[in-house]
Specification:
Elements: H1 3-24, H2 38-58, H3 69-79, H4 82-89, H5 91-111, H6 125-134, H7 141-151, H8 155-163, H9 182-203, H10 215-239, H11 241-262, H12 270-292
Helix pairs in contact: 1-10, 1-11, 2-9, 2-10, 3-7, 3-9, 4-5, 5-7, 5-11, 6-12, 10-11, 11-12
């Protein structure tokens, strides 16, 4: 198999793993009281950072680029709204909505070269546009905002990689391996979540709402998310962000919807089942169009 074929296979396998884990990572928390979510998000981010530490040691501690932390800061800001979203509109619908806007923001910034990044070309632009468009089907306040923030999370890393090819850039010679930025990215997540949690404690006059029973489920959720994101980094490297974003951000909504149907009974009735299947067909079509646009 050619090197390009190996990269594509690796990228698509990593995408599938990421989709399953992203669609399932909030499942451990669903049946536990999480209050306003501020303590929970800190626990989740602590678990994320520990996974990053392990990955960093496995990679023999590649160079740390502080700018890559900015993406983590953006992600942590969007993550604050996750618990209220899940509690108000459900796991499946929440992930479908923020995943759609995550896909749109991440895809567009890579495809058109927003925020100083290099615009990425694909072999079949029309298929890529159709795939990205079909991946975006809904919208709703907090989930929309979270999706936009999530969609911007990889911008600093892609910016560093793009500018590493320019001799006059401070990032000249930076690694092209996305996994080399995991530790900086996840450190940004943990640092930002810690700042938010401390600010929350001050606002609550040192009486934060803690839910100890959610600590282990929250930690497990963080580990699943961290592994999924590492797979996303691999997919970005193998497929490019303009292809991986629509695929990985659209798929978890269906996985979460399946959890909502079979485990939590959030979706009931023939009409809703048919609508869900229609949404799945649209998502699958979008993902296939995006995938074939690379070939």
């Amino acid at each position: 198999m050619s090197s390009n074929g190996t990269d594509l296979t690796t990228g698509f396998i990593a995408s599938i793993v990421a989709i399953v884990l992203f669609g399932s990572n909030f499942v451990p928390l669903k049946k536990y009281e999480t209050g306003d979510g501020m303590f929970l998000q800190w626990v989740l981010c602590a678990a994320i950072w520990l996974v990053a530490l392990v990955v960093n040691l496995i990679l023999h501690c590649p160079k740390f680029w502080p700018f890559a932390m900015v993406g983590g800061c953006i992600w942590a800001t969007g993550n604050i709204a996750v618990v209220p979203i899940i509690k108000t509109i459900g796991l499946g619908l929440g992930i479908l909505i923020w995943g759609s806007f995550n896909a749109l923001t991440g895809w567009a910034s890579s495809r058109f070269g927003w925020f100083g990044m290099d615009a990425e070309e694909v072999a079949k632009p029309l298929l890529n546009y159709i795939g990205a468009g079909l991946s975006v089907v809904r919208g709703c306040s907090l989930a929309v905002i979270s999706g936009i923030l999530y969609g911007s999370t990889f911008v600093p890393i892609i910016y560093i990689k793009d500018h590493s090819k320019r001799n006059d850039s401070i990032y000249a010679g930076a690694s092209q391996n996305d996994l080399d930025y995991v530790f900086a990215h996840f450190s940004g997540i943990f640092l930002t979540s810690t700042v938010y949690f401390l600010a929350y404690c001050v606002a609550m006059k040192n009486n934060p709402k803690l839910h100890p029973e959610a600590v282990l489920p929250g930690f497990l959720s963080g580990v699943l998310w961290a592994i999924a994101t590492c797979c996303w980094f691999i997919a970005n490297h193998s497929l490019s962000a303009v292809v991986s974003f629509p695929i990985i951000t659209a798929g978890p909504g269906f996985i979460a919807a399946m959890w909502g149907v079979f485990m939590f009974k959030e979706i009931q009735g023939r009409k809703n089942y048919l609508l869900m299947m229609l949404a799945f067909c649209i998502i699958l079509t979008g993902a296939l169009c995006t995938a074939f646009s690379k070939i």
